[in-house]
Write a structure and sequence with these properties.
Amidase signature (AS) enzymes, alpha/beta, 11-stranded mixed β-sheet
């Protein structure tokens, strides 16, 4: 492998020649369809696409820290795919298009670290199923993106890990405001604009590659897509194989596409999905792919006409008493405009369409009364008021994943990882601690199984049967419209899909007042369409129609 600094040293002397070679086509804000048209017309080669993206990485990476590793063979892969094209073989819409992967997805030719120092430089013995699918589709895997360490299941309270931080690469920064937070209480180098979630999205927004594959357990595709003005599809759990992806819990884990445009996300979704269920992941029997795994057939600009879309006012738009949830004034204005556009496009707006488990007065039937155990004080003896699903799933699934790595694994168990982190604390292995790993490792998979099953059943009831299922059936809805990524948690529990679309900008107002003279830049705020299991086709229709009616996506960095 070569690191970013080495790559930049190699590229900078070649910039004039590279820029001259690719002047007929620019990758900045180009769609995958644009790239395929230019490739077909010989206006550009896949090698030139890679060169342009590498130039952008070399130019902006110092500001953003979006990349953990770059594929040193990316240009060779581009040359091979250019030769295939010249012989008349085009594998599909991703042929010769540079795509990045979150660095918890196995690649045998680039390290897979999860951002954990113990795995720095580690080359896994097998590709993830989704990685193989992308290679077969002709995608050029150009880089591995940064992430919140172990998909943000390392450190919770009392010192929660900062979103976008990991011990391998440090803090990452949003292209919409790539500055450190100047406020004294958080002046540890963290970004002023939270990049959101743990799947980065920074490099996709900044045009470092055409799109990227992220992963989500609860918010890590939707959060960074919202914060970086991206379109994304958080799929139904089981739609895409998780084999070869570092887990939190198989109950909710999924991979999914993040892109600048809904059409690009739809193309990438089809490539990530396997044509048949993956025997390595039993959940992949849940949904049937469309013919040819072609989700572009659902890109229908008029799809909003007659669509029934619910507005879950309580908590997600308007605060509940005692004060919790709700939007601020700027966010309220953005969503009012979005709803107005939906009406103009012919959608039937059901408002309110409150989620029953959000407003249920019985605490036993209210989804807001029980959160996931996620930090210090919520280990054994302190977890009566929280769900143990995540910490139980982490102990079960992380250890199984480590076993799949064979004898070359840096550590063999979660216990060994925690011990390694403590031993290497002075190297920065656990800057924010490891409270989430600690409460997970003390789980007894046999003795705690009944409690886990009880908690999982309750979570599914409150988020699914008494939650999204009930409100959608009551009002015969096609989708629920959530502000930004605010609905990620309730949709993630039953593993339901969401399509998020770029839309507005709002002030960066979180975390208290800024010092005099510091003017934080506005941050993106999108809209999300959520539905029932396997409803990606309908959600893509709605998301695409809204995107085409608004076209609010813009580039955060100058070409």
């Amino acid at each position: 492998m070569i690191q970013f600094q080495q790559m930049r040293t190699l590229l900078i002397p070649l910039l004039p020649a590279l820029l001259t070679a690719a002047t007929r086509f620019t990758v900045v804000e180009a769609t995958i369809a644009n790239m395929q048209t230019a490739l077909r017309k010989k206006q550009v080669t896949s090698r030139q696409l890679v060169e342009q993206y590498l130039i952008r990485i070399a130019t902006y990476e110092d500001q953003l820290n979006a990349v953990i590793s770059v594929n040193p063979k990316a240009l060779d892969e581009a040359d091979r795919l250019d030769r295939e094209r010249a012989r008349g073989r085009v594998r599909g819409p991703l042929h010769g298009v540079p795509i990045a992967l979150k660095d918890n997805i196995h690649t045998v030719d680039m390290p897979t670290t999860g951002g954990a120092l113990a795995f720095a430089g580690y080359l896994p013995p097998y590709d993830a199923t989704l990685t193989r699918n992308l290679r077969e589709a002709g995608a050029i895997l150009i880089a591995k993106t940064t992430l919140t360490e172990l998909a943000n299941w390392t450190a919770g309270s009392p010192t929660p890990m900062v979103s976008g931080y990991n011990a391998v690469a440090g803090f990452s920064f949003s292209p919409w405001d790539p500055r450190m937070d100047p406020r004294e209480r958080v002046s540890d180098g963290r970004p002023v604009h939270n990049p959101g979630g743990s799947s980065s999205g920074i490099g996709t927004s900044a045009n470092f590659w055409a799109a990227n594959a992220g992963t989500e357990t609860s918010g890590s595709i939707l959060g960074p897509s919202n914060q970086n003005m991206l379109a994304a599809i958080k799929p139904t759990v089981g739609r895409i194989s998780r084999y070869g992806v570092i887990p939190i819990t198989a109950d909710q884990d999924t991979a999914g596409p993040m892109a600048k445009w809904v059409a690009d996300a739809a193309i990438l979704l089809g490539a990530l999905e396997s044509p048949q269920p993956d025997p390595k992941d039993p959940a992949t029997t849940r949904c049937t792919p469309p013919p040819g795994r072609d989700y572009t057939r659902f890109l229908k600009a008029g799809a909003l006409r007659g669509a029934r879309i619910g507005i879950p006012r309580a908590y997600f738009y308007s605060p509940l008493a005692p004060p919790r949830g709700g939007l601020n004034d700027a966010e309220t204005k953005v969503m009012a405009e979005a709803i107005g556009i939906l009406k103009q496009q012919g959608a039937v707006i059901v408002d309110p369409a409150d989620i029953p488990s959000i407003i249920d007065p019985d605490p036993a039937n209210n989804v807001l009364t029980v959160n996931q155990c996620a930090g210090a004080g919520q280990g054994k003896g302190g977890d009566a008021g929280c769900s143990i699903v995540f910490k139980y799933g982490m102990k079960r699934d992380f250890n199984q994943w480590l076993m799949s790595l064979g004898p070359g694994a840096p550590v063999r168990t979660l216990t060994e990882l925690r011990q390694w982190n403590v031993a290497h604390g002075k190297m920065g292995a656990i800057r924010f601690g490891q409270s989430r790993l600690d409460i997970s490792d003390e789980v007894d998979l046999a003795a705690d199984k009944a409690r886990y099953e009880t908690d999982r059943a309750r979570d599914l009831k409150l988020a699914g049967a008494h939650g999204i299922d009930e409100v959608m059936k009551l009002h015969s809805l096609d989708a629920i419209l959530f502000p930004g990524s605010n609905g990620y948690s309730i949709a993630a529990v039953p593993g339901y899909p969401t399509v998020i679309v770029p839309f507005g900008m709002v002030p960066n107002s979180g975390g208290g007042a800024f010092p005099p003279g510091f003017d934080p830049k506005p941050v993106p705020f999108g809209v999300s369409f959520s539905g029932l299991a396997c409803s990606e086709p309908r959600l893509i229709e709605l998301g695409y129609a809204f995107e085409q009616a608004t076209r609010r996506r813009k580039s955060p960095l100058a070409p």
